[in-house]
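so my prof wants the structure for this chain in the C-alpha coordinates format not the other one, which i didnt know existed until like an hour ago. anyway here's the sequence
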Amino acid sequence: MSEQNYTAVSIKTLKGLDAVRKRPAMYIGSTGSSGLHHLVYEVVDNSIDEALAGYCDRVDVTIYSDNSISVVDNGRGIPVDYHAEEKMSALQLVLTTLHAGGKFDNSSYKVSGGLHGVGVSCVNALSAWMKVEVFRDNKIYFMEFNRGVPKEDVKEIGTTDRKGTSVTFKPDDKVFETTEYSFDILSKRLRELAFLNKGICITLKDERPEGKSHEFCYPGGLSSFITYLDENKTPLHPQPICFFQAKDGIEIEIAMQYNDSYIENILSFANNINTVDGGTHLSGFKKGLTRAINTYVSNNNLLKNNNKVELKGEDLREGLTAAVSVKLPNPQFEGQTKGKLGNSDIMGIVETSVGEMLGVYLEENPQIARKVVDKCVNSAIAREAARRARQLARRKTIMDGGGLPGKLADCQERDPSKCEIFLVEGDSAGGSAKMGRDRTFQAILPLKGKILNVEKARLDKVISHEEIQFMVQAFGTGFGKSDEDDDGFNLSKLRYSKIIIMTDADVDGSHIRTLLLTFFFRHLPGLIENGNVFIAQPPLYKIKAAKEERYAFNDVEKDSVLDEWKEKKNLVIQRYKGLGEMNPDQLAETTMNPETRSLLQVKLEDAVEADRVFTMLMGEEVEPRRRFIEENAKKVKNLDV
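here's what i got, hopefully its the right format
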Protein backbone atom coordinates (compact mmCIF):
# COMPACT_ATOMS: atom_id res chain seq x y z
CA MET A 1 0.00 0.00 0.00
CA SER A 2 1.42 3.41 -0.96
CA GLU A 3 1.65 6.24 1.56
CA GLN A 4 -0.93 8.25 -0.41
CA ASN A 5 -3.55 5.47 -0.05
CA TYR A 6 -2.99 4.98 3.67
CA THR A 7 -5.82 7.15 5.04
CA ALA A 8 -8.63 6.93 7.55
CA VAL A 9 -10.51 4.67 5.13
CA SER A 10 -7.74 2.09 5.60
CA ILE A 11 -8.50 1.75 9.32
CA LYS A 12 -11.04 -1.06 9.86
CA THR A 13 -13.07 -1.54 13.00
CA LEU A 14 -14.28 -5.03 13.87
CA LYS A 15 -17.61 -4.68 15.65
CA GLY A 16 -19.37 -7.04 18.00
CA LEU A 17 -17.92 -10.53 17.72
CA ASP A 18 -16.30 -9.99 14.31
CA ALA A 19 -12.88 -9.78 15.96
CA VAL A 20 -13.32 -13.27 17.40
CA ARG A 21 -14.20 -14.80 14.04
CA LYS A 22 -11.35 -12.91 12.37
CA ARG A 23 -8.68 -14.05 14.87
CA PRO A 24 -10.15 -17.02 16.81
CA ALA A 25 -6.78 -18.31 18.02
CA MET A 26 -6.26 -15.09 20.01
CA TYR A 27 -9.28 -16.00 22.15
CA ILE A 28 -9.31 -19.81 22.39
CA GLY A 29 -5.70 -20.73 21.68
CA SER A 30 -6.11 -22.51 18.33
CA THR A 31 -8.61 -23.65 15.71
CA GLY A 32 -7.49 -27.26 16.13
CA SER A 33 -8.66 -29.88 18.57
CA SER A 34 -7.55 -27.96 21.69
CA GLY A 35 -9.53 -24.87 20.65
CA LEU A 36 -12.57 -26.98 19.81
CA HIS A 37 -12.65 -28.52 23.28
CA HIS A 38 -11.92 -25.15 24.85
CA LEU A 39 -15.39 -24.04 23.71
CA VAL A 40 -16.95 -26.61 26.03
CA TYR A 41 -14.67 -25.63 28.91
CA GLU A 42 -15.74 -21.98 28.63
CA VAL A 43 -19.42 -22.86 28.93
CA VAL A 44 -18.85 -25.40 31.72
CA ASP A 45 -16.69 -22.88 33.60
CA ASN A 46 -19.70 -20.56 33.82
CA SER A 47 -21.69 -23.34 35.47
CA ILE A 48 -18.82 -24.08 37.85
CA ASP A 49 -18.70 -20.38 38.77
CA GLU A 50 -22.34 -20.73 39.81
CA ALA A 51 -21.31 -23.71 41.96
CA LEU A 52 -18.50 -21.72 43.55
CA ALA A 53 -21.03 -19.02 44.39
CA GLY A 54 -23.19 -21.68 46.08
CA TYR A 55 -26.06 -21.88 43.60
CA CYS A 56 -25.36 -25.00 41.52
CA ASP A 57 -24.61 -28.65 42.33
CA ARG A 58 -25.18 -30.40 38.99
CA VAL A 59 -23.88 -29.98 35.44
CA ASP A 60 -24.90 -32.27 32.57
CA VAL A 61 -22.87 -32.32 29.35
CA THR A 62 -24.11 -34.18 26.26
CA ILE A 63 -22.36 -34.83 22.94
CA TYR A 64 -24.93 -35.33 20.17
CA SER A 65 -24.55 -37.39 17.00
CA ASP A 66 -23.77 -34.29 14.89
CA ASN A 67 -21.03 -33.19 17.36
CA SER A 68 -23.16 -30.43 18.78
CA ILE A 69 -22.88 -30.05 22.56
CA SER A 70 -25.25 -29.11 25.36
CA VAL A 71 -24.27 -27.91 28.85
CA VAL A 72 -27.11 -27.78 31.38
CA ASP A 73 -26.80 -26.60 34.99
CA ASN A 74 -29.16 -25.96 37.90
CA GLY A 75 -27.76 -22.56 38.86
CA ARG A 76 -29.61 -19.26 39.01
CA GLY A 77 -29.96 -18.89 35.26
CA ILE A 78 -28.46 -16.05 33.22
CA PRO A 79 -30.41 -12.81 33.82
CA VAL A 80 -32.84 -11.97 31.02
CA ASP A 81 -34.13 -8.57 32.12
CA TYR A 82 -33.51 -5.42 30.08
CA HIS A 83 -30.11 -3.74 30.38
CA ALA A 84 -30.88 -0.03 30.15
CA GLU A 85 -27.33 1.14 29.46
CA GLU A 86 -26.73 -1.29 26.57
CA LYS A 87 -30.38 -1.26 25.38
CA MET A 88 -30.73 -5.04 25.13
CA SER A 89 -31.54 -7.98 27.38
CA ALA A 90 -28.84 -9.10 29.79
CA LEU A 91 -28.89 -12.53 28.11
CA GLN A 92 -28.12 -11.04 24.70
CA LEU A 93 -25.46 -8.81 26.22
CA VAL A 94 -23.65 -11.76 27.82
CA LEU A 95 -23.80 -13.83 24.65
CA THR A 96 -22.84 -11.20 22.10
CA THR A 97 -20.46 -8.77 23.84
CA LEU A 98 -16.85 -9.28 24.83
CA HIS A 99 -15.95 -8.45 28.43
CA ALA A 100 -19.59 -8.52 29.53
CA GLY A 101 -20.62 -10.57 32.54
CA GLY A 102 -21.07 -10.69 36.28
CA LYS A 103 -17.42 -11.34 37.09
CA PHE A 104 -15.90 -7.89 37.10
CA ASP A 105 -17.34 -6.32 40.24
CA ASN A 106 -16.39 -9.17 42.64
CA SER A 107 -19.90 -9.10 44.11
CA SER A 108 -21.79 -11.61 41.95
CA TYR A 109 -18.76 -13.94 41.92
CA LYS A 110 -15.97 -13.70 44.49
CA VAL A 111 -13.96 -16.32 42.60
CA SER A 112 -14.22 -17.10 38.92
CA GLY A 113 -12.43 -19.22 36.35
CA GLY A 114 -13.88 -17.40 33.35
CA LEU A 115 -12.68 -14.01 34.53
CA HIS A 116 -12.05 -12.49 31.12
CA GLY A 117 -15.76 -12.26 30.29
CA VAL A 118 -15.06 -13.34 26.72
CA GLY A 119 -15.87 -17.04 27.20
CA VAL A 120 -19.45 -17.74 26.27
CA SER A 121 -19.60 -14.87 23.78
CA CYS A 122 -16.58 -16.38 21.99
CA VAL A 123 -18.31 -19.76 21.93
CA ASN A 124 -21.33 -18.07 20.36
CA ALA A 125 -19.18 -16.30 17.76
CA LEU A 126 -17.40 -19.51 16.75
CA SER A 127 -20.52 -21.69 16.59
CA ALA A 128 -22.57 -22.32 13.47
CA TRP A 129 -25.57 -21.98 15.78
CA MET A 130 -26.33 -21.66 19.46
CA LYS A 131 -29.58 -22.15 21.37
CA VAL A 132 -29.95 -20.99 24.95
CA GLU A 133 -32.72 -21.73 27.43
CA VAL A 134 -32.89 -19.98 30.79
CA PHE A 135 -34.98 -21.35 33.66
CA ARG A 136 -35.72 -18.70 36.27
CA ASP A 137 -38.68 -17.01 37.96
CA ASN A 138 -40.82 -20.08 37.08
CA LYS A 139 -40.46 -19.27 33.37
CA ILE A 140 -38.50 -20.60 30.39
CA TYR A 141 -36.73 -18.04 28.22
CA PHE A 142 -35.25 -18.84 24.81
CA MET A 143 -32.80 -17.23 22.41
CA GLU A 144 -31.15 -18.51 19.22
CA PHE A 145 -28.05 -17.33 17.33
CA ASN A 146 -26.37 -17.99 14.00
CA ARG A 147 -22.58 -17.41 14.11
CA GLY A 148 -23.05 -15.01 17.00
CA VAL A 149 -25.91 -13.02 15.47
CA PRO A 150 -29.30 -13.16 17.29
CA LYS A 151 -32.16 -14.52 15.19
CA GLU A 152 -34.61 -12.60 17.37
CA ASP A 153 -34.94 -11.09 20.83
CA VAL A 154 -35.19 -13.24 23.92
CA LYS A 155 -38.70 -14.68 24.30
CA GLU A 156 -40.69 -16.50 26.95
CA ILE A 157 -41.67 -20.00 25.77
CA GLY A 158 -43.18 -21.70 28.81
CA THR A 159 -43.31 -22.24 32.55
CA THR A 160 -41.16 -24.42 34.80
CA ASP A 161 -40.16 -25.06 38.39
CA ARG A 162 -36.55 -25.61 37.28
CA LYS A 163 -33.67 -23.20 37.71
CA GLY A 164 -30.55 -22.92 35.61
CA THR A 165 -29.25 -22.49 32.08
CA SER A 166 -29.06 -24.78 29.05
CA VAL A 167 -26.58 -23.89 26.30
CA THR A 168 -26.52 -25.97 23.11
CA PHE A 169 -24.15 -25.14 20.27
CA LYS A 170 -22.50 -26.60 17.19
CA PRO A 171 -18.92 -25.53 16.41
CA ASP A 172 -18.53 -23.82 13.04
CA ASP A 173 -16.76 -26.06 10.53
CA LYS A 174 -15.73 -22.92 8.65
CA VAL A 175 -13.57 -21.98 11.66
CA PHE A 176 -12.28 -25.26 13.09
CA GLU A 177 -9.97 -27.77 11.48
CA THR A 178 -12.02 -30.54 13.08
CA THR A 179 -15.41 -30.57 14.78
CA GLU A 180 -15.09 -34.13 16.13
CA TYR A 181 -15.18 -34.10 19.92
CA SER A 182 -13.09 -36.52 21.97
CA PHE A 183 -14.97 -38.15 24.83
CA ASP A 184 -11.70 -38.81 26.67
CA ILE A 185 -10.48 -35.20 26.49
CA LEU A 186 -13.79 -33.90 27.84
CA SER A 187 -13.82 -36.62 30.52
CA LYS A 188 -10.41 -35.49 31.77
CA ARG A 189 -11.52 -31.89 32.28
CA LEU A 190 -14.91 -32.72 33.80
CA ARG A 191 -13.34 -35.27 36.16
CA GLU A 192 -10.90 -32.61 37.37
CA LEU A 193 -13.71 -30.15 38.00
CA ALA A 194 -15.65 -32.70 40.05
CA PHE A 195 -12.57 -33.41 42.19
CA LEU A 196 -11.86 -29.70 42.65
CA ASN A 197 -15.41 -28.86 43.71
CA LYS A 198 -16.64 -31.41 46.20
CA GLY A 199 -20.39 -31.57 46.35
CA ILE A 200 -20.96 -31.05 42.62
CA CYS A 201 -22.04 -33.86 40.30
CA ILE A 202 -21.02 -33.67 36.63
CA THR A 203 -22.24 -36.07 33.97
CA LEU A 204 -20.97 -36.65 30.44
CA LYS A 205 -23.09 -38.53 27.92
CA ASP A 206 -22.10 -39.40 24.36
CA GLU A 207 -25.00 -40.04 21.97
CA ARG A 208 -22.70 -41.00 19.10
CA PRO A 209 -22.43 -44.71 18.14
CA GLU A 210 -20.01 -45.72 20.94
CA GLY A 211 -22.53 -44.46 23.51
CA LYS A 212 -20.14 -43.82 26.40
CA SER A 213 -21.19 -42.08 29.60
CA HIS A 214 -19.57 -41.02 32.88
CA GLU A 215 -20.76 -39.56 36.16
CA PHE A 216 -18.25 -37.67 38.27
CA CYS A 217 -19.20 -37.16 41.93
CA TYR A 218 -16.43 -37.01 44.56
CA PRO A 219 -17.52 -35.89 48.04
CA GLY A 220 -13.91 -36.14 49.27
CA GLY A 221 -12.66 -33.48 46.86
CA LEU A 222 -8.88 -33.31 46.44
CA SER A 223 -8.34 -36.19 48.87
CA SER A 224 -10.45 -38.37 46.56
CA PHE A 225 -8.41 -37.07 43.62
CA ILE A 226 -5.15 -38.29 45.15
CA THR A 227 -6.68 -41.66 46.04
CA TYR A 228 -7.85 -41.96 42.43
CA LEU A 229 -4.43 -41.03 41.02
CA ASP A 230 -2.62 -43.48 43.33
CA GLU A 231 -5.14 -46.29 42.93
CA ASN A 232 -2.60 -48.66 41.38
CA LYS A 233 0.38 -47.60 43.50
CA THR A 234 1.45 -48.59 47.02
CA PRO A 235 1.22 -45.54 49.32
CA LEU A 236 3.78 -44.90 52.06
CA HIS A 237 0.99 -43.64 54.32
CA PRO A 238 -2.64 -44.76 54.22
CA GLN A 239 -4.42 -41.41 53.89
CA PRO A 240 -3.50 -38.39 51.75
CA ILE A 241 -2.10 -35.40 53.63
CA CYS A 242 -4.57 -32.55 53.20
CA PHE A 243 -4.27 -28.83 53.96
CA PHE A 244 -6.72 -25.97 53.62
CA GLN A 245 -6.23 -22.32 54.40
CA ALA A 246 -8.39 -19.28 53.66
CA LYS A 247 -7.00 -15.81 54.23
CA ASP A 248 -7.57 -12.36 52.70
CA GLY A 249 -9.95 -13.76 50.09
CA ILE A 250 -7.46 -16.43 48.94
CA GLU A 251 -8.14 -20.15 49.42
CA ILE A 252 -5.33 -22.69 49.30
CA GLU A 253 -6.18 -26.39 49.22
CA ILE A 254 -3.55 -29.11 48.89
CA ALA A 255 -3.68 -32.89 48.99
CA MET A 256 -0.54 -35.04 48.70
CA GLN A 257 0.61 -38.60 49.18
CA TYR A 258 3.92 -40.40 48.80
CA ASN A 259 4.00 -43.80 47.10
CA ASP A 260 6.64 -46.39 46.28
CA SER A 261 7.03 -45.32 42.64
CA TYR A 262 9.81 -43.15 41.22
CA ILE A 263 7.46 -40.74 39.48
CA GLU A 264 6.65 -37.16 40.50
CA ASN A 265 3.04 -36.32 39.66
CA ILE A 266 1.96 -32.83 40.74
CA LEU A 267 -1.15 -31.18 39.28
CA SER A 268 -1.86 -27.50 39.83
CA PHE A 269 -5.08 -25.51 39.50
CA ALA A 270 -6.09 -21.88 39.86
CA ASN A 271 -9.80 -21.08 40.13
CA ASN A 272 -10.50 -24.60 38.83
CA ILE A 273 -8.37 -24.03 35.73
CA ASN A 274 -5.76 -26.74 35.15
CA THR A 275 -2.58 -24.68 34.93
CA VAL A 276 -0.71 -27.21 32.82
CA ASP A 277 2.33 -24.92 32.63
CA GLY A 278 2.38 -24.35 36.40
CA GLY A 279 2.95 -20.86 37.71
CA THR A 280 3.57 -19.06 40.96
CA HIS A 281 1.32 -21.33 43.05
CA LEU A 282 3.19 -24.45 41.92
CA SER A 283 6.57 -22.80 42.53
CA GLY A 284 5.38 -21.80 46.00
CA PHE A 285 4.29 -25.36 46.77
CA LYS A 286 7.63 -26.81 45.72
CA LYS A 287 9.59 -24.28 47.76
CA GLY A 288 7.37 -24.79 50.82
CA LEU A 289 7.70 -28.58 50.54
CA THR A 290 11.49 -28.37 50.27
CA ARG A 291 11.74 -26.00 53.22
CA ALA A 292 9.45 -28.05 55.47
CA ILE A 293 11.17 -31.40 54.87
CA ASN A 294 14.72 -30.02 55.06
CA THR A 295 13.85 -28.18 58.28
CA TYR A 296 12.45 -31.40 59.76
CA VAL A 297 15.55 -33.34 58.68
CA SER A 298 17.86 -30.72 60.19
CA ASN A 299 15.92 -30.36 63.46
CA ASN A 300 15.94 -34.11 63.99
CA ASN A 301 19.51 -34.71 62.73
CA LEU A 302 18.31 -37.41 60.30
CA LEU A 303 21.33 -37.26 57.98
CA LYS A 304 23.93 -38.12 60.61
CA ASN A 305 24.46 -41.54 58.97
CA ASN A 306 24.35 -40.06 55.43
CA ASN A 307 26.28 -36.85 55.92
CA LYS A 308 27.45 -36.83 52.29
CA VAL A 309 23.88 -36.78 51.00
CA GLU A 310 22.45 -33.43 49.91
CA LEU A 311 18.65 -33.39 49.59
CA LYS A 312 17.44 -31.40 46.59
CA GLY A 313 13.90 -30.51 45.61
CA GLU A 314 13.63 -33.30 43.05
CA ASP A 315 14.65 -35.85 45.71
CA LEU A 316 11.85 -34.66 47.97
CA ARG A 317 9.26 -35.04 45.19
CA GLU A 318 10.13 -38.53 43.97
CA GLY A 319 7.07 -40.75 44.35
CA LEU A 320 4.91 -37.75 45.32
CA THR A 321 1.40 -37.37 43.98
CA ALA A 322 -0.09 -33.98 44.76
CA ALA A 323 -2.86 -31.60 43.75
CA VAL A 324 -2.41 -27.89 44.44
CA SER A 325 -5.52 -25.73 44.11
CA VAL A 326 -5.74 -21.99 44.76
CA LYS A 327 -8.78 -19.75 44.45
CA LEU A 328 -8.27 -16.02 44.30
CA PRO A 329 -10.33 -12.96 43.31
CA ASN A 330 -8.16 -11.57 40.49
CA PRO A 331 -6.02 -14.29 38.91
CA GLN A 332 -3.53 -13.23 36.25
CA PHE A 333 -3.26 -15.99 33.68
CA GLU A 334 -0.89 -16.04 30.77
CA GLY A 335 -3.16 -16.02 27.71
CA GLN A 336 -6.87 -16.69 27.35
CA THR A 337 -6.27 -20.46 27.60
CA LYS A 338 -4.95 -19.87 31.14
CA GLY A 339 -2.07 -22.37 31.13
CA LYS A 340 0.06 -20.57 33.73
CA LEU A 341 -0.69 -18.47 36.81
CA GLY A 342 1.31 -15.26 37.06
CA ASN A 343 0.26 -13.58 40.34
CA SER A 344 3.62 -12.82 41.96
CA ASP A 345 2.26 -12.56 45.52
CA ILE A 346 0.79 -16.08 45.41
CA MET A 347 4.22 -17.75 45.44
CA GLY A 348 5.13 -16.43 48.87
CA ILE A 349 1.64 -17.04 50.27
CA VAL A 350 1.59 -20.69 49.17
CA GLU A 351 5.21 -21.26 50.22
CA THR A 352 4.56 -19.95 53.72
CA SER A 353 1.30 -21.88 54.02
CA VAL A 354 2.81 -25.21 52.90
CA GLY A 355 5.95 -24.71 54.97
CA GLU A 356 3.97 -24.12 58.14
CA MET A 357 1.23 -26.73 57.69
CA LEU A 358 3.49 -29.51 56.40
CA GLY A 359 6.06 -28.73 59.12
CA VAL A 360 3.40 -29.20 61.80
CA TYR A 361 2.15 -32.40 60.15
CA LEU A 362 5.63 -33.95 60.06
CA GLU A 363 6.26 -33.14 63.73
CA GLU A 364 2.89 -34.62 64.72
CA ASN A 365 3.34 -37.77 62.59
CA PRO A 366 6.96 -38.90 63.11
CA GLN A 367 6.44 -42.42 61.71
CA ILE A 368 5.15 -41.10 58.40
CA ALA A 369 7.81 -38.38 58.41
CA ARG A 370 10.60 -40.97 58.78
CA LYS A 371 9.22 -43.02 55.85
CA VAL A 372 9.12 -39.90 53.68
CA VAL A 373 12.65 -38.86 54.66
CA ASP A 374 14.03 -42.37 54.02
CA LYS A 375 12.53 -42.31 50.54
CA CYS A 376 14.00 -38.85 49.89
CA VAL A 377 17.47 -39.99 51.00
CA ASN A 378 17.30 -43.06 48.75
CA SER A 379 16.22 -40.79 45.91
CA ALA A 380 19.23 -38.52 46.48
CA ILE A 381 21.57 -41.53 46.44
CA ALA A 382 19.97 -42.79 43.22
CA ARG A 383 20.18 -39.30 41.66
CA GLU A 384 23.91 -39.22 42.30
CA ALA A 385 24.24 -42.73 40.82
CA ALA A 386 22.24 -41.55 37.79
CA ARG A 387 24.57 -38.57 37.37
CA ARG A 388 27.59 -40.87 37.37
CA ALA A 389 25.86 -43.24 34.91
CA ARG A 390 25.08 -40.31 32.61
CA GLN A 391 28.71 -39.15 32.74
CA LEU A 392 29.93 -42.69 32.04
CA ALA A 393 27.57 -42.97 29.06
CA ARG A 394 28.87 -39.67 27.67
CA ARG A 395 32.51 -40.69 28.14
CA LYS A 396 31.81 -44.01 26.46
CA THR A 397 30.22 -42.19 23.52
CA ILE A 398 33.24 -39.91 23.15
CA MET A 399 35.67 -42.84 23.35
CA ASP A 400 33.67 -44.69 20.69
CA GLY A 401 34.35 -41.82 18.34
CA GLY A 402 31.13 -39.81 18.17
CA GLY A 403 27.77 -39.03 19.60
CA LEU A 404 25.77 -41.67 17.69
CA PRO A 405 25.44 -45.40 18.43
CA GLY A 406 27.39 -47.67 16.10
CA LYS A 407 24.39 -49.77 15.09
CA LEU A 408 22.40 -46.74 13.93
CA ALA A 409 22.00 -46.63 10.15
CA ASP A 410 21.62 -42.87 9.85
CA CYS A 411 20.10 -40.92 6.97
CA GLN A 412 21.77 -38.43 4.66
CA GLU A 413 19.39 -35.52 5.23
CA ARG A 414 20.39 -33.09 8.00
CA ASP A 415 17.16 -31.10 8.26
CA PRO A 416 15.35 -32.71 11.26
CA SER A 417 11.92 -31.72 9.89
CA LYS A 418 12.52 -34.02 6.91
CA CYS A 419 14.07 -36.94 8.82
CA GLU A 420 12.55 -39.98 10.49
CA ILE A 421 13.94 -42.87 12.50
CA PHE A 422 12.52 -46.40 12.81
CA LEU A 423 12.98 -48.27 16.09
CA VAL A 424 12.98 -51.82 14.80
CA GLU A 425 12.63 -55.03 16.78
CA GLY A 426 15.62 -57.31 16.28
CA ASP A 427 18.53 -57.53 13.84
CA SER A 428 16.60 -59.59 11.27
CA ALA A 429 13.88 -57.01 10.81
CA GLY A 430 16.53 -54.32 11.13
CA GLY A 431 18.35 -55.80 8.14
CA SER A 432 15.19 -55.82 6.01
CA ALA A 433 14.37 -52.27 7.11
CA LYS A 434 17.87 -51.02 6.23
CA MET A 435 17.58 -52.47 2.73
CA GLY A 436 14.01 -51.28 2.24
CA ARG A 437 14.41 -47.71 3.51
CA ASP A 438 15.01 -44.52 1.62
CA ARG A 439 18.43 -43.70 3.05
CA THR A 440 17.98 -40.06 2.06
CA PHE A 441 15.70 -39.32 5.02
CA GLN A 442 15.04 -42.62 6.86
CA ALA A 443 17.29 -43.87 9.67
CA ILE A 444 17.11 -47.35 11.24
CA LEU A 445 17.96 -48.25 14.85
CA PRO A 446 17.63 -52.00 15.56
CA LEU A 447 16.84 -52.80 19.21
CA LYS A 448 18.02 -55.98 20.87
CA GLY A 449 15.25 -57.81 22.73
CA LYS A 450 12.97 -56.14 25.23
CA ILE A 451 14.12 -52.89 26.81
CA LEU A 452 13.99 -52.27 30.53
CA ASN A 453 10.55 -51.77 32.08
CA VAL A 454 11.17 -48.21 33.31
CA GLU A 455 8.00 -48.27 35.42
CA LYS A 456 9.80 -50.54 37.88
CA ALA A 457 13.27 -48.99 37.64
CA ARG A 458 15.00 -46.04 39.26
CA LEU A 459 16.61 -43.36 37.13
CA ASP A 460 20.16 -44.67 37.52
CA LYS A 461 19.08 -48.09 36.19
CA VAL A 462 17.23 -46.47 33.29
CA ILE A 463 20.22 -44.36 32.24
CA SER A 464 22.57 -47.35 32.51
CA HIS A 465 20.45 -49.51 30.18
CA GLU A 466 22.33 -49.87 26.89
CA GLU A 467 19.38 -49.88 24.47
CA ILE A 468 17.96 -46.77 26.14
CA GLN A 469 21.36 -45.09 25.81
CA PHE A 470 21.37 -45.91 22.09
CA MET A 471 17.94 -44.33 21.60
CA VAL A 472 18.73 -41.16 23.56
CA GLN A 473 22.01 -40.73 21.67
CA ALA A 474 20.26 -41.20 18.33
CA PHE A 475 17.42 -38.77 19.14
CA GLY A 476 19.87 -36.08 20.25
CA THR A 477 17.45 -34.56 22.77
CA GLY A 478 19.26 -35.49 25.95
CA PHE A 479 17.44 -37.10 28.83
CA GLY A 480 15.71 -36.21 32.07
CA LYS A 481 15.94 -32.96 34.02
CA SER A 482 18.87 -30.59 33.78
CA ASP A 483 21.53 -30.46 36.49
CA GLU A 484 24.98 -28.97 36.90
CA ASP A 485 26.56 -31.62 34.67
CA ASP A 486 23.86 -32.09 32.05
CA ASP A 487 21.42 -29.87 30.21
CA GLY A 488 18.75 -32.57 30.34
CA PHE A 489 15.99 -32.98 27.76
CA ASN A 490 16.01 -30.36 25.00
CA LEU A 491 13.40 -30.74 22.26
CA SER A 492 15.18 -28.26 19.98
CA LYS A 493 18.03 -30.77 19.57
CA LEU A 494 15.76 -33.52 18.20
CA ARG A 495 17.35 -35.03 15.07
CA TYR A 496 14.20 -36.62 13.63
CA SER A 497 10.68 -35.21 13.33
CA LYS A 498 9.20 -38.72 13.31
CA ILE A 499 10.21 -41.48 15.72
CA ILE A 500 8.47 -44.61 14.45
CA ILE A 501 8.10 -47.75 16.56
CA MET A 502 8.08 -50.76 14.21
CA THR A 503 7.57 -54.12 15.92
CA ASP A 504 6.21 -57.53 14.97
CA ALA A 505 2.46 -58.09 14.89
CA ASP A 506 2.52 -60.67 17.70
CA VAL A 507 2.47 -60.77 21.51
CA ASP A 508 6.21 -60.15 21.85
CA GLY A 509 6.01 -57.25 19.43
CA SER A 510 3.12 -55.76 21.38
CA HIS A 511 5.09 -56.12 24.61
CA ILE A 512 8.15 -54.39 23.14
CA ARG A 513 5.95 -51.59 21.80
CA THR A 514 4.38 -51.15 25.25
CA LEU A 515 7.79 -51.04 26.93
CA LEU A 516 8.92 -48.35 24.48
CA LEU A 517 5.75 -46.33 25.01
CA THR A 518 6.25 -46.58 28.78
CA PHE A 519 9.77 -45.22 28.35
CA PHE A 520 8.56 -42.32 26.20
CA PHE A 521 5.68 -41.48 28.55
CA ARG A 522 7.77 -41.56 31.72
CA HIS A 523 11.08 -40.11 30.56
CA LEU A 524 10.60 -38.35 27.19
CA PRO A 525 7.00 -37.08 27.41
CA GLY A 526 7.94 -33.96 25.45
CA LEU A 527 8.27 -36.09 22.31
CA ILE A 528 4.70 -37.36 22.70
CA GLU A 529 3.32 -33.91 23.51
CA ASN A 530 5.07 -32.49 20.45
CA GLY A 531 3.60 -35.18 18.19
CA ASN A 532 6.93 -36.85 17.28
CA VAL A 533 6.11 -40.46 18.23
CA PHE A 534 4.37 -42.83 15.80
CA ILE A 535 3.56 -46.54 15.55
CA ALA A 536 4.08 -48.32 12.23
CA GLN A 537 1.20 -50.44 10.98
CA PRO A 538 2.65 -53.50 9.20
CA PRO A 539 0.17 -55.81 7.45
CA LEU A 540 -0.94 -59.02 9.09
CA TYR A 541 -1.64 -60.90 5.86
CA LYS A 542 -0.48 -61.23 2.27
CA ILE A 543 -3.15 -62.74 0.03
CA LYS A 544 -2.02 -64.08 -3.34
CA ALA A 545 -3.97 -65.32 -6.36
CA ALA A 546 -1.83 -66.19 -9.39
CA LYS A 547 0.22 -63.02 -10.04
CA GLU A 548 -2.02 -60.74 -7.98
CA GLU A 549 -1.10 -59.77 -4.42
CA ARG A 550 -3.01 -57.84 -1.78
CA TYR A 551 -2.10 -56.91 1.78
CA ALA A 552 -4.54 -56.87 4.70
CA PHE A 553 -3.79 -55.01 7.91
CA ASN A 554 -6.45 -56.77 10.00
CA ASP A 555 -8.97 -59.59 9.84
CA VAL A 556 -11.72 -57.32 8.50
CA GLU A 557 -9.58 -56.32 5.50
CA LYS A 558 -8.58 -59.96 4.97
CA ASP A 559 -12.22 -61.10 4.91
CA SER A 560 -13.07 -58.25 2.53
CA VAL A 561 -10.34 -59.33 0.09
CA LEU A 562 -11.39 -62.98 0.31
CA ASP A 563 -14.99 -62.00 -0.36
CA GLU A 564 -13.89 -59.91 -3.35
CA TRP A 565 -11.71 -62.75 -4.69
CA LYS A 566 -14.09 -65.60 -3.91
CA GLU A 567 -14.21 -66.60 -7.60
CA LYS A 568 -10.43 -66.82 -7.88
CA LYS A 569 -8.66 -70.14 -7.51
CA ASN A 570 -5.55 -71.24 -5.63
CA LEU A 571 -5.70 -68.48 -3.05
CA VAL A 572 -2.68 -68.39 -0.78
CA ILE A 573 -2.92 -66.55 2.56
CA GLN A 574 0.30 -65.76 4.40
CA ARG A 575 0.07 -64.62 8.02
CA TYR A 576 3.10 -62.51 8.89
CA LYS A 577 4.44 -63.35 12.33
CA GLY A 578 7.36 -60.98 12.09
CA LEU A 579 8.79 -58.13 10.09
CA GLY A 580 11.79 -60.31 9.27
CA GLU A 581 9.54 -62.55 7.14
CA MET A 582 8.99 -59.69 4.69
CA ASN A 583 11.29 -58.98 1.80
CA PRO A 584 12.81 -55.49 1.94
CA ASP A 585 10.64 -54.31 -0.96
CA GLN A 586 7.49 -55.66 0.74
CA LEU A 587 8.39 -53.95 4.02
CA ALA A 588 9.07 -50.70 2.20
CA GLU A 589 5.83 -50.83 0.22
CA THR A 590 3.53 -51.68 3.13
CA THR A 591 5.13 -50.10 6.19
CA MET A 592 7.88 -47.60 5.36
CA ASN A 593 7.03 -45.71 2.16
CA PRO A 594 5.26 -42.44 3.10
CA GLU A 595 3.14 -42.74 -0.05
CA THR A 596 1.65 -46.14 0.82
CA ARG A 597 2.13 -46.75 4.56
CA SER A 598 -0.23 -46.08 7.46
CA LEU A 599 1.15 -44.53 10.66
CA LEU A 600 -0.59 -44.22 14.01
CA GLN A 601 0.38 -41.04 15.88
CA VAL A 602 0.75 -41.39 19.65
CA LYS A 603 -1.27 -38.66 21.37
CA LEU A 604 -1.74 -37.78 25.03
CA GLU A 605 -5.37 -36.79 25.51
CA ASP A 606 -5.85 -37.73 29.16
CA ALA A 607 -2.55 -37.69 31.06
CA VAL A 608 -4.20 -38.67 34.36
CA GLU A 609 -5.83 -41.77 32.88
CA ALA A 610 -2.64 -42.64 30.95
CA ASP A 611 -0.66 -42.46 34.20
CA ARG A 612 -3.10 -44.84 35.89
CA VAL A 613 -3.05 -47.32 32.99
CA PHE A 614 0.76 -47.41 32.71
CA THR A 615 1.02 -47.90 36.48
CA MET A 616 -1.57 -50.67 36.38
CA LEU A 617 -0.16 -52.57 33.41
CA MET A 618 3.57 -52.02 33.95
CA GLY A 619 3.93 -51.39 37.70
CA GLU A 620 4.76 -53.58 40.68
CA GLU A 621 1.21 -54.27 41.86
CA VAL A 622 -0.16 -57.54 40.45
CA GLU A 623 -3.78 -57.38 41.64
CA PRO A 624 -4.87 -54.31 39.58
CA ARG A 625 -3.32 -55.89 36.48
CA ARG A 626 -5.07 -59.20 37.10
CA ARG A 627 -8.38 -57.38 37.59
CA PHE A 628 -7.87 -55.45 34.34
CA ILE A 629 -7.17 -58.65 32.40
CA GLU A 630 -10.23 -60.40 33.85
CA GLU A 631 -12.47 -57.45 32.99
CA ASN A 632 -11.16 -57.00 29.44
CA ALA A 633 -10.23 -60.52 28.31
CA LYS A 634 -13.43 -60.93 26.29
CA LYS A 635 -12.63 -57.78 24.26
CA VAL A 636 -9.43 -59.25 22.75
CA LYS A 637 -9.63 -59.34 18.94
CA ASN A 638 -6.18 -60.60 17.90
CA LEU A 639 -4.67 -63.38 20.01
CA ASP A 640 -1.65 -65.44 19.04
CA VAL A 641 -2.06 -69.16 19.69
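also thought this was worth mentioning. The chain has 20 helices and 24 strands.
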